[in-house]
Amino acid sequence: MGKKVNTKQEAAGSKERIVRVAVKLFARHGYAGTGLRELSSEAGVNLAMINYFFGSKKGLLKEILDTFYAKYLEIARMELEQEGGLQEKLEHFIYGTVIFFDAYKDYLLVTINELPHDDPEIIEHKASWAQMMIAIMEKEICRPLVAEGGRVISPTVLGPLLTATMASRFLFAPVMDRVRPENCPMESLEEYAETISISLLKMIS
Amino acid sequence: MGKKVNTKQEAAGSKERIVRVAVKLFARHGYAGTGLRELSSEAGVNLAMINYFFGSKKGLLKEILDTFYAKYLEIARMELEQEGGLQEKLEHFIYGTVIFFDAYKDYLLVTINELPHDDPEIIEHKASWAQMMIAIMEKEICRPLVAEGGRVISPTVLGPLLTATMASRFLFAPVMDRVRPENCPMESLEEYAETISISLLKMIS
DNA sequence: GAGTCTTAAACAAACGTTTATATAACAGCC
DNA sequence: GGCTGTTATATAAACGTTTGTTTAAGACTC
């Protein structure tokens, strides 16, 4: 009878399709505001497949968070943990991050907006990633800064400050899109990256 | 019979109690993640009272957003729309805002974290507030800045940038609280305000 | 008695998760 | 080449809760 089942070729994409749609919907309605039925139907997948692949809705969220944090951390390592002047390294880090945030803006929104949810499991999960990020910034930015006679700033202040500043465009985009029209078109990503880079370099100097 | 009804004195507090608990829970579980039954029972109020006072769950959210935006806008008007040097005015604005964000940190989290939810009604609501904020910044910061020979920066970039920077501590607090312990105690609010103030003043100069 | 506040009960709808069953691909064996 | 058991993927249906909202009636103040 007419049970339709994907071939293995098509099936290979199911898991990725779930993640892609989940990121989009979580960013728009929030995690709690997204139902698994809406998610599965938009991904063209049976409802039960989500629990099959990810164990639970929370498992799906964790996988999304992990993807984002891993990439963000990789950029920090690549750009900051190398030879060269602080200023130059920071500039590369900022440009790399802004481009990354733009390409992964929905991931970014999920990661930041689901921040304060008091599920201890999720918070602990995020804290372990943040811990590594803070350690890099402490070693590669804060310490060199005082060594060069610059300002003293705690990594637990600088980390959030840097991230929030670079993310500001994407964080406020849904509202700014409604505010902008009568003023001007949106700045290009390159202009934005340059503005943020200049701002942050002045800031820490 | 034993129907217990508050006296009018006690009742006068019901609406305020709902708002107070709602802000707290929305900040912790998110808007969609907070059930009206949890909310009403924690506020010591009957479930139906929420719809009685606010019409709907969304109406309650709107009232919370309005409270926050109105106060934030009031600070901007008070500190920026007056005689005096740009630098000095900005410093007052930053200090005032940081203190306000600290006192209303749960409001802040709700306002920012519920930002991207694609409910057109909510977005439009926020946009009208943001519009006024951007107008003030354009007139009181961006224009004087170029007049003084400073940098050119669009208000739709500066607004989010300023707000995100000042909010960074509160935005990341739930995670940073788990990261910090092995490093150091949290900086005092005064230290934080000073750090942010110095950073931002350098940034726009 | 009018008006404001409060209550318990009920509503249909949506929620995350689990179940039992079915299909497809591939392995080893004859 | 055909048969078989295994594994991974897919499906529809049902599970018991919980959701936001509405209703009709009661209590209190003035």
How would you describe this structure to a colleague?
2 copies of one chain form a homodimer. The first copy, chain A, starts with 7 loop residues before the first helix and ends with a helix. The first copy, chain A, is mostly helical and 205 residues long. Chain A is globular, with a radius of gyration of 20 Å. Chain A has 2 domains: 1-55, Homeodomain-like (Arc Repressor Mutant, subunit A); 59-204, Tetracycline Repressor, domain 2, CATH 1.10.357. Mean pLDDT of chain A is 91; it is low at 1-11. The longest helix of chain A has 28 residues, at 120-147. The first copy, chain A, has helices spanning 8-11, 14-29, 36-42, 48-54, 57-80, 86-103, 105-113, 120-147, 155-171, 173-179, 189-204. The interface between A and B is large, with 61 and 61 residues. Chain A binds a DNA duplex (30 and 30 nucleotides) through helix 4.
Top keywords for this entry?
DNA-binding; 2 domains; Arc Repressor Mutant, subunit A; 0% strand; homodimer; mainly alpha; Tetracycline Repressor, domain 2; 205 residues; disordered N terminus
